[in-house]
Fold Flagellar hook-basal body complex protein FliE.
Amino acid sequence: MNPLDPRFSLLPVPDRTQPKAAPDPAFSGRSFSDRLNGAVGEVNTLQNVADFAAEKVMLGELDLHEGMMALQEADLSMRLLVQTRAKALEAYKEIMHMQF
């Protein structure tokens, strides 16, 4: 996505221009639940942005390339979330079958 394109500024994209400091997982202070909720919220935001971009493409207010990039980003984030869920469920099942 080209942030310099004035038409793209209409999309509600989260600000990613600020460099993030590398978080230290041991001292970050966020629980797994908070992280999971944040990830689900971010995927939801990307899905909404992709829907909005698709509407803008259909109206001719956004390039097809920019719309496809928004859709691809939303698709990849959803696939990652689904894979994370599958791994978490697999780990849960393994723990439930452990003999103590």
Notes: Residues 36 and 83 are 13 Å apart (CA to CA).
